[in-house]
Automatic annotation (TrEMBL):
SUPFAM superfamilies cross-referenced by the UniProt entry: Annexin (SSF47874)
InterPro entries reported for this sequence: Annexin, Annexin_repeat, Annexin_repeat_CS, Annexin_sf, ANX3
Protein name in UniProt: Annexin
Keywords tagged on the record: Annexin, Calcium, Calcium/phospholipid-binding, Repeat
Domain-related comment: A pair of annexin repeats may form one binding site for calcium and phospholipid.
Domain of life of the organism encoding this protein: Eukaryota
GO molecular function, one term: calcium ion binding
GO CC term, one of those recorded: plasma membrane
PROSITE patterns, per database record: ANNEXIN_1, ANNEXIN_2
Pfam families: Annexin
Family: Belongs to the annexin family.
């Protein structure tokens, strides 16, 4: 019996098989892996020497922290605290500064806590940074969102969804708060008839209607599974002259438009969505280092290899070469090491 036949027999449909292969392949698409000959004590000794010596040895910090997985960094941070009585994060904050400090702190922070801190950063102070909220909630899985919410409660003593409610409003709030529940359907099966029905509902709520019924778009795009939405995009194109993304862009505006477009982009191709975000962070007046850090650190163990490939395909240049021209010093060196070898 061939492997193809055996895999096919395990699933009810080709869509389920494709989804299974995509999920399992994505686990191997990071640029950062577990270090094979990992020795916690050696790393702690090297970090202590780099931090406690006369002047911080940034090269050691970069070599150790960019070449370990996050799980390994957590072991190092724990051992470091036992050995010194100080938190590694606090020492990094005291001995480095600027974007380099933010990058190192991100590297030694557990993923759920890092996302949690980014949400807090987006909503604290005057005004809300919706672009951060949109990126995070449009691209994370249910488990990632639930882990983030649990961490938020532990860190702040408040419910994340409650704080979000006080910071966002209107149709954007409706959509974001649904996503923040972390309850999107995650079944891998596809109901072709339902996809056609949803496509028709979206068409009639947007292009065919005088005035757009945003609630219909929010309900479908924030609740349906990713495989189901992929089929809905196909069915929408079959009944409209536009893609669903084009329809949203022509029928809506403001933050809700950006959020729903981000969802559609992630449904189609998550790595391409992040490649575009990286590209935009290095365009215009000044580089958006916080976005570079968030995406490159956050995706380094998930799909950064695919993001690099999409970047080159979409923009005709390698991510490495763009980073070389936009960031420099210890920060730039660390970012490029996280991205792996140049294509």
């Amino acid at each position: 019996m061939t492997l193809h036949y055996e895999l096919t027999c395990m699933f009810c449909s080709l869509n389920e098989l494709i989804s299974f292969l995509h999920v399992n392949q994505s686990k191997e698409r990071g640029t950062v892996k577990d270090k094979v000959d990992f020795k916690v004590d050696e790393d702690v000794t090297a970090l202590r020497k780099a931090i406690e010596g006369l002047g911080t040895t940034e090269k050691t910090l970069i070599d150790v922290l960019t070449q370990r997985s996050n799980a390994q960094r957590q072991l190092v941070a724990s051992a470091y605290e036992k050995a010194t009585g100080r938190k590694l994060v606090a020492d990094l904050e005291g001995d480095t500064h600027g974007d380099f400090e933010n990058l190192l702190v991100a590297l030694v922070t557990p993923p759920a806590l890092f996302d949690c801190n980014e949400v807090i950063r987006a909503i604290k102070g005057p005004g809300t940074t919706e672009s951060i909220l949109t990126e995070i909630f449009a691209s994370r899985s249910n488990k990632q969102i639930r882990d983030m919410a649990d961490t938020y409660l532990k860190e702040t003593g408040r419910l994340m969804i409650h704080d979000l409610k006080s910071e966002v409003s209107g149709d954007y709030a409706k959509a974001l708060l649904i996503l923040a529940e972390g309850k999107r359907d995650e079944s891998t099966s596809v109901d072709a008839a339902k996809a056609k029905e949803d496509a028709k509902i979206l068409y009639e709520a947007g292009e065919k209607k005088w005035g757009t019924d945003e609630d219909k778009f929010i309900d479908i795009l924030c609740h349906r599974s990713v495989p189901q939405l992929r089929q809905t995009l196909v069915e929408y194109k079959n009944i409209s002259k536009k893609t669903l993304q084009e329809s949203i862009e022509s029928e809506m505006s403001g933050e809700v438009e950006k959020l729903l477009v981000a969802i559609v982009k992630c449904v189609k191709n998550v790595p391409a969505y992040f490649a575009e975000r990286l590209f935009k962070s290095m365009r215009g007046a000044g580089t958006d280092e916080s976005t570079l850090t968030r995406i490159i650190v956050g995706r380094s163990e998930i799909d950064l290899l695919d993001i690099k490939a999409e970047y080159k395909k979409l923009f005709g240049v390698s991510l490495h070469s763009e980073l070389k021209s936009e960031v420099s010093g210890n920060y730039g060196e660390a970012l490029m090491l996280l991205c792996g070898t140049e294509d």
